[in-house]
């Protein structure tokens, strides 16, 4: 049920991604020394993009039989079946909102960037524009173009403005993601030539009668794995913590908060939607891999001495739960998976804002033995980190609870043993979060110089408050997300169920 009406003749979805491309052109015209003007332009347009996503969210009618709304269709290379097709449903809608939240709060956190400010902001906004494009694309070729636009700026953002073996982290991330892109291209070629239609329109490709069962089983693998690499799926996860640690704070927020969600989104929107029989065939191996993700990631996070590495491995664990929800292949599990993408995106953006900007940039250390007693110095950072940690632990009243509850319910229906084993990750998560809170914010103040650390800025307070409020609202009233999500994942779940019935014949 839509809360507002928007003019139908306005290309709202194009405006969303263009709202972050336009400021890159404006920033390019500014002089390098105009740093404050560059920051203002970037932050203002990041807010405009967030406002546009809110308008689209409020105007979306999830009860309509037409799940894809705000459609835009323009021929691009029609002779090759490539067209500019945009649209949103209940799956992509929360992802748009998530990207808007993270890029705006990331812009606020980026206020301290002094080195090559113009280039940094241009790349940051282009990255977020590419993310928007992926979430609204209904043409597979167009989606891949936006996907590459989102991934490629990461190399420069980490390599130039990062820290802690930044060149190594940037190169490792790029090689892994380019390898994943190669798998995606292979899957796209198979989709194009194996079906009865020469098109990249995913609405048409999702008609499973276009592809034989054997084609789906074979080519589901490269298509799914290509996106799963970006989602940090085991055993392709090792690039992720390294990239998190090396990236500057706002890039870490986008990296963990949004970019990893592109991978999970692609697994669902592309691989599972187009090849339901192939997905159904490989559900058990995928579920086992996600189990390893969840438990292994949480266990390794527990052993870390570096604050940022702990959050990096925590992301691996939580993305394992996201993919586990997809492997459940039922409505409740996949609803939980999409909700987990949103909840984890907000939570981990808040984590990295605290760890990278509020703590590390002031103390110049991320090592637990060198930290302690910071609650007395920066109580706001401690409070928002604790709230994010409680969401990570799945505490009722916060967004993470509903996401994990749906995922475990869905997995119990599909593979009960895996659901039970994956539950081990919950107490481990609680363990490393509580240990980190004690080591960093409570206990003895290890360094007397920490008493004179610079105060938090207004921009940092604003970013923290925004992300915390979203976590709390999503925990108290999750229906604003779950209702549109459920309405859109249900047809995919039904297609997977039909595929399972056909596979037993």
TrEMBL record:
It is found in: Endomembrane system; Membrane. GO terms for molecular function: NADH dehydrogenase (ubiquinone) activity; NADH dehydrogenase activity; ubiquinone binding. The chain crosses the membrane at residues 12-30, 42-60, 80-108, 120-138, 144-161, 173-195, 215-236, 256-275, 281-302, 309-329, 341-360, 372-395, 415-441, 461-480. Pfam families: Proton_antipo_M. It is an enzyme of class 1 (oxidoreductase). The keyword Transmembrane helix applies. One of its GO terms (biological process) is electron transport coupled proton transport. One of its GO terms (cellular component) is endomembrane system. Residues 137-424 form the NADH:quinone oxidoreductase/Mrp antiporter transmembrane domain. The keyword Iron-sulfur does not apply. Its EC number is 1.6.99.5. Keywords: Membrane, Oxidoreductase, Transmembrane, Transmembrane helix. Belongs to the complex I subunit 4 family. This is Proton-translocating NADH-quinone oxidoreductase, chain M.
């Amino acid at each position: 049920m839509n809360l507002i009406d928007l003019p139908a003749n306005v290309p709202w979805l194009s405006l969303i991604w263009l709202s972050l491309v336009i400021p890159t052109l404006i920033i390019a015209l500014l002089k390098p020394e105009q740093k404050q003007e560059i920051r203002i332009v970037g932050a203002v347009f990041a807010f405009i993009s967030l406002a546009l996503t809110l308008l689209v969210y409020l105007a979306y009618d999830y009860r309509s039989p037409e799940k894809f709304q705000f459609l835009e269709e323009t021929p691009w290379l029609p002779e090759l079946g490539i067209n500019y097709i945009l649209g949103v449903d209940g799956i992509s809608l929360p992802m748009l909102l998530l990207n808007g939240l993270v890029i705006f709060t990331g812009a606020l956190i980026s206020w301290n960037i002094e080195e090559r400010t113009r280039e940094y902001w241009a790349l940051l906004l282009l990255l977020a524009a590419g993310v928007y494009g992926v979430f609204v694309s209904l043409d597979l070729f167009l989606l891949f173009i936006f996907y590459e636009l989102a991934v490629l700026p990461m190399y420069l953002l980490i390599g130039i403005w990062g820290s802690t073996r930044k060149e190594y982290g940037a190169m490792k991330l790029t090689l892994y993601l380019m390898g994943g892109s190669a798998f995606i291209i292979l899957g796209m070629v198979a989709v194009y030539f194996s079906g009865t239609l020469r098109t990249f329109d995913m609405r048409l490709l999702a008609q499973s009668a276009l592809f034989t069962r054997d084609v789906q089983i074979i080519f589901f693998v490269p298509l799914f794995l290509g996106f799963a690499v970006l989602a940090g799926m085991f055993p392709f996860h090792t690039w992720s913590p390294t990239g998190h640690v090396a990236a500057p704070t706002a890039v870490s927020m986008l990296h963990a908060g949004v970019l990893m969600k592109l991978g999970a989104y692609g697994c669902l929107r592309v691989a599972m939607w187009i090849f339901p029989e192939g997905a159904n065939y490989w559900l058990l191996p995928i579920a086992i891999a996600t189990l390893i993700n969840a438990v292994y990631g949480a266990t390794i996070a527990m052993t870390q001495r570096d604050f940022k590495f702990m959050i990096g491995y925590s992301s691996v664990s939580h993305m394992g739960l996201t993919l586990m929800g997809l492997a459940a292949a039922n409505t409740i599990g996949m609803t939980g998976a999409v909700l987990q993408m949103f909840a984890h995106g907000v939570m981990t953006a808040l984590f990295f804002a605290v760890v990278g900007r509020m703590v590390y940039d002031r103390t110049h250390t991320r090592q637990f033995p060198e930290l302690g007693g910071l609650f007395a110095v920066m109580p706001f950072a401690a409070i928002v980190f604790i709230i994010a940690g409680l969401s990570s632990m799945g505490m009722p009243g916060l967004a993470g609870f509903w996401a994990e509850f749906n995922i475990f319910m869905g997995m119990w229906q599909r593979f009960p043993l895996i659901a039970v084993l994956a539950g081990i990750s919950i107490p481990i998560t609680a363990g490393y979060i509580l240990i980190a809170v004690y080591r960093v914010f409570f206990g003895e103040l290890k360094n007397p110089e920490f008493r004179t650390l610079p105060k938090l800025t207004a921009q940092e307070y604003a970013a923290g408050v925004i992300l915390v409020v979203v976590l709390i609202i999503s925990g108290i009233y999750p229906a604003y997300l779950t209702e549109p999500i459920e309405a859109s994942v249900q047809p995919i779940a039904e297609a997977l169920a039909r595929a399972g019935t056909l596979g037993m014949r």
